[in-house]
Amino acid sequence: MKTNSVALGLVFTVLAASPAAAQAPAGDSWRVTVAPYFLGAGMNGTTTVKGQDVTVDMSFSDILKNLQFGAMGLVVARKGQWGVGGDAIWMALGANGTAPGPVGVTASTDMSQGAFAFYGLRRLAPYADVFFGGRVNYLSANLRINSPLQVRSVDGAKTWFDPLVGLQLRTPENGKRWHAQVYTEFGGFGVGSTFTWQIFPTVGVDVAKWASLEFGYRWLDIDYSSGENTTLFKYDVLTQGPVLGFAFRF
Fold first, then answer.
1. Nearest of 207, 202, 211 to residue 244 by alpha carbon
2. Residue from 73, 2, 4, 62 nearest 38 by CA
3. Nearest CA to 95 among 140, 37, 36, 143?
4. How far apart are CA 30 and CA 145, in angstroms?
5. Residue ranges of the domains in the chain?
6. Does residue 235 contact residue 224 with C-beta atoms inside 8 Å?
7. For the whole model, what pTM was predicted?
8. d(C-alpha 200, C-alpha 184), whole Å
9. What is the spatial distance between Cα 1 and Cα 201, in angstroms, rounded to a whole number?
10. How is residue 3 annotated by DSSP?
């Protein structure tokens, strides 16, 4: 509870606020940003389905070699100092790992993860926005345990809601083509996930007055669990990988 209270006091955010979403200056007219992204994702952590554990412990180089892929799209509308937005993320995740048991037992996991967010935002300064909102998470998992005597497979799926708060910092607008931003968030607070956080730095270059090319790297950590013993479903995983996309401003 102490961690949750500290996080709540730090910032207000939502997951899907893309770095490209905050480039437009404040004004009296509506400004809309549409940003499709392509992302790579590798995983590191522990997954439990129906009481069966699989632990994935991948180095940074292992993650880059075994990236799975996904897509993200967002829409943000701003007027003056306020704004609203939403996004959708879909990722395919998979890795080899270990399971409790004798020597020679191997394991693998395949997952599909969706995240659907909505949020409000408030401009604090030309270089900072505060966010507040929530995310609906969907996760389906298939775990396969391979031993010399048998192969076991278990499947499970869960849907839950996480409140989210956070902060986005960016370079001031100075007429140059290049810009950089760092997005951070905290959430869950025991409502859905026990705790979740994200760090998302990006660098972008304008290719037109109304469009930019965005490069970044994303760390997203989720610690969620429900049930117990043979009904236990747990997802305590750090997902990370590169991000590439465009932002279109109207």
1. 202
2. 73
3. 143
4. 53
5. 2-249
6. yes
7. 0.81
8. 6
9. 28
10. H
Bridge-partner residues for 246, per DSSP? 213
- Token pair recorded at residue 247: 């932002």
Q: Where are the alpha helices (DSSP H) in the chain?
A: 2-10, 60-65
How far is Cα 37 from Cα 48, in angstroms, rounded to an integer?
A: 30
One DSSP character per residue, 201-246 reads EEEEEEEETTEEEEEEEEEEEEEEEES-GGG-EEEEEEEEEEEEEE
Give me the residues paired with residue 189 across strands. Answer: none
Element (H, E) at 22: none
- Residue 17 CB partners (closer than 8 Å, separation 6+): 74, 76, 85, 119, 121, 129, 131, 166, 168, 183, 185
Q: Are 37 and 243 in contact (CB under 8 A)?
A: yes
pLDDT digits (tens, 9 = 90+) for 46-72: 989 988 888 888 777 777 777 778 888
Contacts of 222 (CB under 8 A, 6+ apart): 137, 188, 193, 196, 235, 236, 237, 239
The alpha carbon of 51 is separated from its chain's Cα centroid by a whole number of angstroms, namely 25
Cβ neighbours for 32, distance < 8 A, ≥ 6 positions apart:
75, 76, 77, 78, 249, 250
Helix (H) or strand (E) run with residue 74 in it = strand 68-79
Q: What is the pLDDT of residue 16?
A: 35
Structure tokens at 177: 């083509």
CATH topology of domain 2-249: Lipocalin (2.40.128)
What pLDDT digit, counting tens, does each position of 135-180 carry? 999 999 888 887 776 677 889 999 999 999 999 898 987 778 999 9
Question: Phi/psi at 26 (nearest 5 deg)?
Answer: -65, 145
Instruction: Name residue, tokens 């839950």.
Output: 160
